[in-house]
Amino acid sequence: MEKLEHPLWIVDVINAVLGPPVKAALEALGFHIKAEHGIVIPNYLVMVMLIVAVLTVLSLIIRSRLSVENPGKLQIVFEDGLTAVGNLLEEWIGPKGRSFLPLIATFGIFILFGNYMGLVPGLMAPTSNINVTLGCAITTWVYYHFHGIRAQGIVGYVKHFWAPPGAPWWIGFLYFPIELVSHAARVMSLSLRLFGNIFGEEMVILILFTLIPFLVPLPMMFLGLITGALQAFIFVLLSTIYLQGAVAVEHHEDEHAHDAPSGRQAPAAA
Amino acid sequence: MSKRFVLTFVLVLAGGMFAPVFAQGTGAESINLEIAKWSIITAGFALGIAAGLAALGQGKAVSAAAEAIARNPGAAGDVRGALILGLVLIESLVIYVLLISFLLFFFKPFSG
């Protein structure tokens, strides 16, 4: 597998510039890294930094040109995207859902850019590395637990692990372990889904490319356009559902569940 | 799907299972080779089975959603949301198998 990772010029450039100071700093902290071919900062970290830089510059450009009467094309695209995520949050979580927009929309944009980066020659998709997707998943996990505790209080939050509303208390002996496993599995499912999709995508393109390096990988790359957007949307959707499950204050009258402010009912999904 | 096909299939499976018995060397190297071979075979079959069964499940979900939208076009948005969520959860199982088969195929764990 290691042979498949071809060196990227941008990684070489960044390592030539930032490599020695980073290595010196890490060794001062007591970490010893094996630099192969002078690569201290791995591919995916360079790509993540690139996304952050590009998004920051893009956002600054848009902010400098914000206008109500005469919005630019870029502004309209970003507004539509953010409005879509905001509407999704409101639909699932309720009126206060929009307060979760910053993190969730950031993940959406980051993952979308990350997925599409793999299709640009000379770059690779950072989301095809397990470290990046695991970082996103763990951040989401900590975030929704934090907001669950903040919304329900620590006692209420633990109680919501113990038994579903309207169930007898002793069901907790059965329910609690299942809930624990299900919440732990969410990290795995969020990270591995994204990683597997993008990594598999890249492998398929690579294998097709080694077989016939002309025009044949194109349909797969087109599929990659769809998968990239879909996976970003799915990450956002699942984060929203997990947030809704954690934040929703439970109503004990189940007949009126449809009138509850918390929009739809979450499926019992991992 | 004649009797002959089933017979051949069973014979091939049995041959595969008893192949280590007929294998010549008993050293660690031949066992490693054996494990590597079975890793590749397992990877292919696992992904095939997973993809086939998940396709059945997804087909069922899509057909139900299409029927629901045909009966009640007003609910198309809600049905589509539920459909995508369900498809994703089905598909993620295939992705797990895909990752495991990648692992088996490229890294060949347990083969020393």
Overall description:
- The complex is a heterodimer of chains A (270) and B (112).
- In chain A, 68% of the residues lie in helices and 0% in strands.
- By secondary structure, chain A is mainly alpha-helical.
- The longest helix of chain A has 40 residues, at 172-211.
- The radius of gyration of chain A is 22 Å and the shape is globular.
- Chain B is mainly α.
- The mean pLDDT of chain B is 83.
- Chain B has a single domain, classed as F1FO ATP Synthase (Up-down Bundle), CATH 1.20.20.
- In chain B, α2 packs antiparallel against α3.
- Chains A and B meet through α6 and α7 of A and α3 of B.
Uncertain runs of chain B? none
Radius of gyration of chain A, in angstroms, nearest whole number? 22 Å
Count of DSSP-assigned helices of chain B:
3
What average pLDDT do the residues of chain A reach? 82
Beginning-to-end CA distance, first to last residue of chain B: 39 Å
Pick out the low-confidence regions of chain A. Answer: 252-263
Tally of alpha and pi helices of chain A: 7
Oligomer: heterodimer
**Residues in helices of chain B, as a percent range:** over 70%
The major pleated sheet of chain B works out as: none
Question: Total strand count of chain B, please?
Answer: 0
Query: What string gives the helices and strands of chain B in order?
Result: HHH
What is the number of strand segments of chain A?
0
What proportion strand of chain A? under 5%
Helix content of chain A: 55-70%
* Rg of chain B computed from alpha carbons, rounded to a whole number of angstroms: 21 Å
